[in-house]
Amino acid sequence: MNRITNQMINNTMTYNLQRHQIDMDQFQNQLGTGKSVRIPRDNPIAATNQMLYRTRLSEIEQYISNVSETQARLNEVDTALQSSLRIFQRIRELAVQGANGIYSNFERKEAAAAEMNQLLEELVSIANQKGATGRSIFGGFNTGTEEQPNPFVPIYMTLTAGRQGDAMIGVEYRGNIGEQVREISKGEYLEVNIPGNKVFWATEQTLTSGADSTNYSASSNQVIKIDGKEIEIAAGDNVDIIIDKINNSGVSVKASKGGINNLILNTTVPHQIWLEDKGSGTVLQDLGLVNKNFPQPPNNIDPTASIGGMSIFDMMIQVRDDLVRGDQELVGGRDLGLIDGALDNILRHLAATGARQSRADELAKRAEYEKGNITELLAKTEGIDYPETIMNFKWLESVHDYALSVGAKTIKSTLLDFLR
Fold this sequence. Notes:
- By secondary structure, this protein is an alpha+beta fold.
- The chain folds into two domains: 53-200 and 310-370, CATH 1.20.1330.10; 206-308.
- It has ten helices and eleven strands.
């Protein structure tokens, strides 16, 4: 038989009351915060899942922000390309009219020249357009400086033909080939700009070195860059090996050898070739393609090398000059072909931009859907069932009241009570 003392009864009652109060405090915290887990020790597994869900939600919200910025940047590019397309459609109309000989002498020499010059100015303005962030849309990584705010710099000269006055005779690209990207999903990136040396180019470009490379041999291990792609050149490589390496590098440029064993580079899609000797290398300089005095791009082609192909601006200047001269054969043949080629290039980049916009829109929908799923999982893991929690709290409150009542009756039965 166990001996039960008053102290044991008191201790048991006190323990039960404290346990009730701890449980009631827990339910009260849950009802006050709406959360089932206050500190990790309450439920380590649930707490771990909550942290994972919250981390994923933060990632998704950042991706949604990135996608939103991407959509805005692509819309800017699309608007600029659409404007360029309308300009080219007007240029084609002028060329067709000029080729048909319907212009009078005044219209051909002055009116057509004046309109072409205005279209040129507008196209340069579009090429130098800055987005909402103040950065050039078509300048690559070149965001503009006080000395050089725009990636496209027009060159003017006074032209007496057609009484044009100060008219544009050329445009230099002084941006770079950097492609700005945004991470729009985990491990997925999307370009938000197009470098100007690609979009504002009318024909394939050809660079022909004037240097004889028959006896050329690389003096050391070096690296050359073509359109931003690094190509490793080993010590002892001759021009034939270099040609093979260029052709197998995956760039949109094909290399070949000319009649005097000189190196020739041809683009496979319209763009301006970007050449650079990396570091202290001199391969492209020694082969006669890069200017030794100004080795860094842009506009670093060796003066002894010949350049074939033209930018969209060069093409427009040529069409203007042919219209002023009244050369119907060139306008209706060569010039119309160049205009159509430039149109195709604009349309190609416009289609690529549209495809990126569609992908960004789809990713935005996917991110919002995933955000909803994660939020629902977090709510189920973190939240409480209010009716059930209130019922448990009321039940525990009743038990606690009963314990107090029973305890009061038990404690008052002492030896003195029996002696009365």
